[in-house]
């Protein structure tokens, strides 16, 4: 069996990229032949080559690094990327290759789908977001700071000024969504949901005959003793600093509750965080090793108060694995792994609810009990790369066996 993992990036600069890379590594560790194809020219995670994975770049620029006109064209239909992808796929062994797409909006564009779907190889698409249906990808009304309730590409959806950038960007993204839908029409497709929340959010917008699968993301954490949570440790937000992820909520709620907070990451909400909580510690991005150290030595709880129906995030799982309680929004997919009151807290992404949760965390004995329970429960059924790879291999084997009988999209 040969697996081609396809994404925009080949370095772990975000959740979807991290999953694509870890998935490729886990499959290679199980003895499968793996090729990693990335659209954007740039550095590749050195672990890929070390694992014997062939890494192929399509030599494209990120659409956000192009001129406005160039980004518009490449974002809507990147013909050069599609042509280069087709040439790579032509060299893959027929009859035993499965294509697994993780990302496509930053370089590959909807033009990749006809190439992938007509290649003769089964295609799996992991839905790390909702771009397959929703124009802005997160099914969120940015102008209202609330989840969307409209049917994607309905008249009301097209008219809604919901884009985080501008009405003009919304128009472009609507066109991209139309092109995506057209590119997928008439073709069979298998999709992987990474959480129940993600599945329940997007499933109503997929044709009934699309084959849907539920596989957890892999979590790259070595088993160790639970973290020893100290009285002076901080509440931590880890990830891109944006309003839809609730980074600003953490800043305001921590200040109201009188609790220290740290932010690991960068993003457009950084200034709002500093204004809301001047005492907050802003660390920027940190290496994996440094993040592991922070988790075990300085973090009291990891907070993920997403306002949107986030499919993950990985940081909640990583916290539980380390024996650190997680405070998760009831809108995020990761909340399904948190036992509220036992391994952390599940709350509404609202200021008072979050402040109240933070006040409870002033009790160090309670936090330590939660951390130990989180560690124990997580390692009873860890989201390990090995378990992830086993689930994927079962899926791939079924697709290769049943390919002639798959229904059309």
Automatic annotation (TrEMBL):
Instruction: Tell me yes or no: is Metal-binding among this UniProt entry's keywords.
Output: no
* Designated name of the protein: Glycosyltransferase
Which InterPro entries does the record match to this protein?
Glyco_trans_1
Transferase: is it a keyword of this entry?
Answer: yes
Matching PANTHER family = GLYCOSYLTRANSFERASE
Identify the keywords attached in UniProt to this record, alphabetized: Transferase
GO-annotated molecular function: glycosyltransferase activity
What is the species listed in this Swiss-Prot or TrEMBL entry? Enterovirga aerilata
| Residue stretches making up the Glycosyl transferase family domain | 234-375
